[in-house]
Design goal:
The chain is of the alpha/beta class and about 280 residues long. It has a single domain, classed as Rossmann fold (3-Layer(aba) Sandwich). It has 10 helices and 7 strands. The protein has a 7-stranded parallel β-sheet with strand order 3-2-1-4-5-6-7, with helices on both faces. β2, α2 and β3 form a beta-alpha-beta unit. About 45% of the residues are buried. It binds nicotinamide-adenine-dinucleotide.
Length: about 280
């Protein structure tokens, strides 16, 4: 995010308290900064405390308020303690962003096609991405209900809605989030809780900028309908919208923030290439 932007003390999330899981890096870190920019006080939670503390320092430099809480979302005791800590610190919880995900290289390499997926990768991915998100809802919703409700946002993925050659566990965990989101919306909507999921396309965080080969980036870009791949800020802006009263009538919804990755005919790209080869710019 642009660090020259000033934190808004009267922004659309002023007075709100937000929790971001996996907020120490990547999209979670950007979402935490942007929520703070809109006036929220943000609990940056992560299995990596040092990373969460760095994000907190950045938010404080912006003029915002933040708190780092070490939380491994695979552990229910950690989540319970985190919800209690945040509620005791600021007296309320209004926003929960379920963002933490097991995306380390070891897990991704072991998370292959169904016949070859390593069961440890399946279990860890499900524990962090799906079970962890459910447990965060389980322990944060009662706190939200004490002050009249809140907004829960689940960071899902195109993998949760489409088939692919690998990352079986990741895809199933991201599909589970879509169901979890609707269950929460259905069960607690009357008590003031909204729940929405975001299907995220390919977003270049700092690490991906450097590590993903150009050829792969181009293949992915060809499948997006936008001129560029996504940026963390574009996702954070959607999160801030769903967190705010601007989205007060939006619940149980799966929002595509994927540059059109999941919304076009499979034949679009080969057709475009076909017409290019013919020397026509029709598509
Ligand atoms: N970047 C993308 O292109 C993209 C695309 C689709 C969906 N998403 C989703 O967005 C979210 C963030 O992705 P990212 O690319 O920023 O990932 P990232 O790997 O940069 O960040 C994930 C964060 O989760 C934390 N984490 C891992 N295990 C944890 C645990 N057990 N408990 C608590 N924290 C834990 C990590 O420490 C890290 O800070 C994920 O849910 C991912 O599925 C990202």
């Amino acid at each position: 995010m642009n660090m020259e932007e000033k934190t808004m003390t009267s922004g659309k999330l002023a007075g709100r308290v937000a929790i971001v899981t996996g907020g120490g890096n990547g999209l979670g870190a950007e979402c935490a900064k942007v929520l703070a920019l809109h006036g929220a006080r943000v609990a940056v939670t992560d299995i990596n405390l040092a990373a969460a503390q760095e994000v907190v320092a950045a938010i404080e430099t912006q003029g915002g308020q933040a708190l780092a809480v070490k939380t491994d979302v695979s552990l229910e005791a950690d989540i319970k303690a985190m919800a209690t800590t945040v509620s005791a610190h600021w007296g309320r919880i209004d926003v929960l962003l379920n963002n933490a995900a097991a995306l380390d290289t070891k897990t991704r390499h072991a998370d292959r096609d169904v016949c070859n997926v390593e069961i440890e990768a399946w279990d860890w991915t499900m524990d962090v991405n799906a079970r962890g998100a459910m447990l965060c809802c389980k322990h944060v919703i009662p706190e939200m209900l004490k002050t009249g409700g809140g907004s829960i946002i689940h960071n899902s993925s195109g993998f949760g809605v489409m088939g692919d050659a690998s990352l079986t566990s990741y895809a199933c965990s991201k599909a589970a989030l879509l169901a979890l989101s609707r269950m929460v919306a259905a069960q607690y909507g009357k008590q003031g809780i909204r729940s929405n999921a975001i299907v995220i396309g390919f977003v270049l965080n700092e690490h991906a900028q450097k590590s993903v080969p150009e050829e792969i980036k181009q293949i992915l870009l060809d499948q997006h309908l936008t001129p560029t791949l996504g940026s963390p800020r574009q996702i954070a802006d959607v999160v801030a919208f769903l967190a705010s009263d601007e989205a007060s009538f939006v619940t149980g919804h799966t929002m595509m923030a994927d540059g059109g990755f999941t919304s076009h005919a499979p034949s679009l790209v080969p057709m475009r290439q076909f017409f290019e080869r013919q020397g026509s710019n029709k598509l």
